[in-house]
Amino acid sequence: MFKEQLMKSYNRYFDTYESYEHLGLEFDFMAKYYQRNSKYMAVKNIEYYAFSNYEEVYYKHYENFNIQALSEINLFITNYLNLFTSADENHMETLLTVIASTDGQVPNDLKKSVEKMNLSKSIFWGLKGWIKVKLILIDSQNNIISNKVGQKDQLKLAKLLS
Predict the structure, then answer these.
(1) Phi-psi region of 26 (alpha: psi -120 to 50; beta: other; left: phi over 0)
(2) How many domains does the chain have?
(3) Whole-model pTM?
(4) Domain presence at residue 43
(5) Does the residue 6 lie in any domain?
(6) How far separated are the first and last CA of the chain, in Å rounded?
(7) 104-123 residue pLDDT tens
(8) Which of 27, 63, 68 is nearest to 139 (CA)?
(9) Residue 140 domain-assigned (yes or no)
(10) What does the DSSP assignment read for 112-162?
(11) Is residue 22 in some structural domain?
(12) What is the model's pLDDT at position 1?
């Protein structure tokens, strides 16, 4: 149920792919967004400034969310950050959003681990952009737990679930 609501909310501005596998992990769906901004001088042929923003959203549902599931997600994020290559020369920011939902309760120690998680990567000291990671966890009671970067999305998801 939640998967369909989430996919529908991303369909408007994102390209969505169902049953997506990336870096050895199967996801229920993935959504991709690309935006390019530029400034021109007189005509469009004389571009003097441009930047690109990307966002990738990965969603996976777990029957029970435990330490193994969290370490699986951590491994995916670490591999993503380590293998990331800039898509174009004007890359500014990539947001990686990982959303996990579960039918069960989430132990308090895992909630605290998710909230404390602060993963990001600066590319060439920030001159060629950066990557920020949002990690969001939704339990059976529709409680939403996220790291600091994902707190804005936490509010959007709360509206979607209500």
Answers:
(1) beta
(2) 1
(3) 0.88
(4) no
(5) yes
(6) 13
(7) 888 888 888 888 888 878 77
(8) 63
(9) yes
(10) HHHHH---EEESTTTTT-EEEEEEEEE-TT--EEE-GGGHHHHHHHHHHH-
(11) yes
(12) 59
